[in-house]
TrEMBL record:
MF annotations from Gene Ontology: ADP binding
Tree of life domain: Bacteria
GO biological process annotation, one example: defense response to other organism
Protein name: Uncharacterized protein
InterPro entries: Disease_R_plants, HTH_VMAP-M9, NB-ARC, P-loop_NTPase
Length: 705
């Protein structure tokens, strides 16, 4: 017995009543042996809601069949009553199959009239399969209007609806199909979640479109596809294929078909290229290769990438939460993802008595179904895509593909990075910001959690491979980014390791041992040594203090005296190391610009000085430890200054008590002057440096190639 036969028997048993869309979908999935959790995932509902729907459905069927129906005896009861029903119909002298066809029509009651079947192929017939209930639908007014115009006005043949899990693709496609169904004669909905073979799917569709029994159809793909295309020509057909990502290959950049499913690519290609009067709509978390991107000029093949809900997302909450100002924070963090907001709103009521702020204070925003949802998408990524995802979480803010390429070790080609970024965009896992890329907040939190988990396992299993590939804290990052990396990554990781080892001494002993293991390796150690050193520092003192440029504990004869001289001086003064970092906020140029202390502290002084003058100063201080010098420097990209200052060569110690060469500076006078004609600005010089670096890398790659 097919699922459609079973639905027909249920309709007969319920007489004038009909299953709701969600009840029918639950029935179909139960018939296939799915658990409530699996059904919830398919339907896009919370598992507790699906369980409640199931309880009411079994009660309804118990009453209709006159005997107890449960999730476990469903098929037995339906088959028993199908046999009785068949005997009754046969006694009346009517074909049983006609009764089943007449009874099977879930969305459009007017087509359940058996007399309509006599009108031939062009009679209005609908098979909505397991399309979900869209009686409750929020927003998407503009998107629906746009896509309706594509389908009706432009007569689009192939339409792809894409977006990350939970964004509402299935609901959108259902609502769209319902709104345009009057333009079509034959409507069929199918899910590819269980990855049916293309021949199986085509057989079902051709059988429905041509009113032929599946047993009478050919078995080979080419003949089935030809019959399908012919049906699209003869009738106005609307076909919806949901969950297309199920037939796409995981572990590679998006769009590749799984082995044995390449026929779907040919199906989509012919639907888009061959002239006909029908429309095929597909939904997917990933874009198949045969569907064109949104900026394509082809009117026959279109695609829409669904973003999250905006202000209309408030309608998903109860009235008291819908108007709460904190609700905006939830919508922004989850980027309007309907499924995520549904899960969160239920948690807020059940766990926090409707107090949004209490929920936000937990700082645990990725949990339960939300984590499971992103887990599914992450597991499908290629190795390089996963690397990009980790680095975007580490960087914390938008970053260019060139910077991403510099982060990743070993270095990969520009084309590989570009392909991965494009693929991740089509998976809706990253967002474009001007010429840079970043992650949605909820995805970034998920990836940060994964980063900590992987680093933790690498440390306790004494396998440094992961620690070699990723920098937990980036030395070259802006101060505020580095502070976030410490707070969000290094501190939680250190806390977990301390809990595992039980004491600071044991943790430090293990980290030192891991460090020795690295030194014994013959291969490159990447970021591992820096990560372990950072963990050692984090385990021995307060992170806020230990990650200053220089230690809180200073030596008696160098750092303390320098600090006292700076504090006692009535001149603008500061201390700068020769790696061009400014360790303290009282930077000698701070009083001359309007920039904040954070911006000043993170500046690279090399680009402030005119070319060659900083190196000259370093040589002069080697010959004479104290000197007064007049020099020129950029204060920022627009202000150029003549500066009179006293310099002194000094030695200080870093957080590991290692000596560091530095210079003590006291400003005597600063005057803003016109820069020499053609003198490069700091931005110009940074751009030139990047270009030189890229040229060197290109030449090196060319030699290696």
């Amino acid at each position: 017995m097919t699922i459609e036969d079973a639905i027909a028997i249920v309709d007969a048993a319920l007489e004038h009543k009909r299953l709701s869309n969600v009840q029918e979908q639950l029935f179909r999935q139960t018939w296939e042996g799915k658990t409530y959790a699996e059904i919830a995932e398919v339907c896009g509902y919370d598992s507790s809601y699906i369980r409640d729907v199931g309880y009411r459905l079994w009660q309804l069927l118990t009453k209709g069949f006159g005997e107890r129906v449960t999730k476990h005896n469903l098929q037995v009861v339906v088959r028993t009553h199908a046999k009785r029903f068949q005997e009754n119909v046969s006694e009346a002298g009517q074909p049983f199959a006609n009764h089943l066809i007449a009874l099977t029509n879930p969305h459009n009651a007017e087509t359940s009239n058996p007399s309509m079947l006599n009108d031939g192929l062009n009679a209005k017939r609908c098979d909505w399969g397991n399309a979900i209930d869209t009686s409750i639908f929020y927003g998407r007014t503009q998107e629906l209007a746009t896509v309706k115009n594509w389908v009706i006005g432009d007569r689009c043949r192939l339409l792809g609806v894409f977006g990350m899990g939970g964004i509402g693709k299935t609901a959108f496609a259902t609502k769209l199909a319902e709104q345009v169904q009057s333009e079509f004669t034959l409507i069929a909905w199918r899910s590819l979640r269980n990855a049916p073979a293309v021949e199986t799917m085509l057989s079902e569709l051709v059988s429905f479109l041509t009113a032929q029994a599946i047993a009478s159809l050919p078995q080979d793909f080419d003949r089935l596809l030809a019959m399908f295309i012919q049906a699209l020509k003869q009738s106005c057909c609307l076909i919806v294929l949901d969950n297309v990502e199920s037939i796409l290959r995981s572990g590679e950049t998006t769009g590749q078909y799984s082995e044995g499913y390449e026929g779907y690519g040919e199906l989509f290609r012919q639907v888009g290229e061959v002239r006909h009067q029908s429309c095929l709509i597909l939904t997917s978390r990933e874009k198949p290769n045969d569907v064109l991107p949104p900026d394509s000029s082809d009117l026959m093949v279109r695609s829409l990438q669904l973003a999250g809900l905006k202000e209309e997302a408030r309608q998903m909450f109860r009235e008291e939460l819908a108007i709460a100002p904190e609700t905006r924070k939830l919508i922004d963090f989850y980027c309007g993802n309907p499924l995520a907001l549904t899960v969160v709103s239920r948690s807020i009521y059940s766990m926090f008595d409707g107090n949004i702020q209490e929920f936000l204070n937990q700082e645990t925003n990725v949990f339960g179904d939300i984590r499971h949802l992103i887990d599914q998408q992450y597991s499908r990524l290629s190795d390089l895509e996963q690397q990009v995802m980790y680095w975007l979480a580490i960087e914390r803010e938008p970053i260019t593909t060139d910077n991403l390429r510099q982060d990743i070790v070993p270095m990969v080609s520009k084309s590989q990075i570009l392909e991965s970024v494009i693929s991740l965009r089509w998976r809706s896992l990253i967002e474009k910001n001007a010429h840079s890329f970043t992650q949605q907040p909820v995805v970034m939190e998920y990836m940060t959690d994964r980063l900590i988990d992987m680093a933790y396992n690498a440390a306790i299993e004494r396998n440094p491979e992961f620690l070699m590939s990723y920098a937990l804290v980036q030395h070259r990052a802006e101060d505020y980014i580095r502070e976030t990396q410490i707070r969000q990554v290094l501190q939680p990781l250190t806390d977990r390791l301390l809990a595992h080892y039980g004491s600071v001494d044991t943790l430090q002993r293990e980290l030192q041992s891991l460090l020795e293991t690295l030194r014994d390796r013959q291969t490159t150690i990447g970021y591992a040594q820096g990560n372990i050193m950072n963990l050692l520092r984090a385990s021995q003192s307060d992170l806020t203090k230990s990650f200053c440029r220089f230690p809180e504990r200073v030596t008696e004869h160098s750092d303390l005296q320098i600090l006292e001289r700076l504090l006692a001086s009535d001149r603008a003064g500061g201390l700068a190391t020769w790696d061009h970092r400014i360790p303290w906020a009282n930077n000698p140029l701070a009083q001359q610009t309007s920039e904040s202390k954070t911006q000043i502290r993170s500046k690279n002084l090399y680009y402030q000085w005119t070319e060659g003058s900083l190196e000259q100063l370093q040589q002069e201080l080697k010959q004479q430890s104290k000197l007064r010098k007049k020099y020129h420097a950029w204060l920022n990209d627009t202000e150029f200054a003549a500066i009179d200052a006293d310099f002194e060569a000094v030695k200080i110690t870093d957080t590991l008590n290692q000596p560091v060469d530095a210079r003590l500076v006291f400003i005597n006078e600063v005057n803003i002057v016109e820069p020499p004609a053609g003198l490069p600005t700091p931005s110009d010089r940074r751009a030139q440096a990047r270009k030189r670096k890229q040229e060197m890398q290109a030449n090196r790659s060319k030699k290696l190639g």
